[in-house]
Amino acid sequence: MSGANGAGPLLLAESVTKSFSGFLALKDATLAVPRGSICALIGPNGAGKSTLFGIIAGSVRPTGGRVIFDGQDITGRPAWRRARMGMSRAFQVARFFPTFTVAENIRGAVLAQRGMSWQFYRSENPSEVAAGVEARLEVAHLSRLRDTPAAHLSQGDRKRLELTMATSMRPKLLLLDEPTAGMSPQETASTIDLIRWLWKEQECTVLLTEHDMAVVFNLAEHVTVLNMGQIIAEGPPDAISRDQGVIDAYLGEPVVG
User: Less Cβ crowding at N or C end of the chain, within 10 Å?
Assistant: First the structure.
């Protein structure tokens, strides 16, 4: 899917710097995400991954540098404007409406994508919305939990619900923050399959952070490594897994695919 229509990367974080009260969290970091790709941003705790993710998403303002999304400079734009442009984020701790059922949460996301309100849905009950909800429940393996309040879900099911909600907006760029954190091996495998299916079905671009290297090297086409606020390596997974600087700073040993 790499090399989708459109010139240049979908996302470019260029020479980004961020200082917090004198502490330099990021220093001159440049990250390019090709259209239609699945890319991963990895590194040890405190490397600056969450800061860079926040700058890309619009929740953190950079001290220097700029962010280009789909050919437009969005450095000063708030997160909600970026969302309207086609950027969607799923967080490490899943976010949803806890008292709503699984189906209601997904329905709300589908309605938002179509520019419809709950009031309009209740009065008109468009069949295409219902069909969209059912399709997403099935793909995410959540059909059996459709009437369960989201607050009662397991960690893995919560993360799959949020991921399904995020992609219901049909984003151009999907930002995934630790998408398999806290999951069992079975839940992790199911979530990898879901991410890959959504990437192909919706033809979106994916940028993820993840500490599980099996997930990273299973999914990503391109990996960027941060350490102490600076990018120390980038390239295909097999090259990153053997990079001595990355091994010393983060991996500890070569990763076997």
Answer: C
**Sequence letter at residue 103:** A
pLDDT tens track for 154-204: 878 888 888 888 777 778 999 998 888 888 888 888 888 888 888 887 788
Report yes or no: 33 and 11 within 8 Å, Cβ to Cβ: yes
Order the strands of the 87-90 sheet from edge to edge: 87-90, 173-177, 205-209, 38-42, 222-227, 230-235
How many CA atoms lie less than 13 Å away from 54 in the CB half-sphere?
14
Query: Cβ distance 184 to 155 under 8 Å?
Result: no
- Residue 93 gets which letter from DSSP? S
**Tens digits of residue pLDDT in 83-113:** 889 898 875 445 677 889 999 888 887 777 6
The span from the CA of 216 to the CA of 75, in Å, is 28
pLDDT in tens, 35-58: 999 999 999 999 999 999 999 999
Q: What is the pLDDT of residue 84?
A: 85
Q: Which two tokens stand for residue 150?
A: 């989201």
| Contact residues for 84 (Cβ-Cβ < 8 A; gap 6+) | none
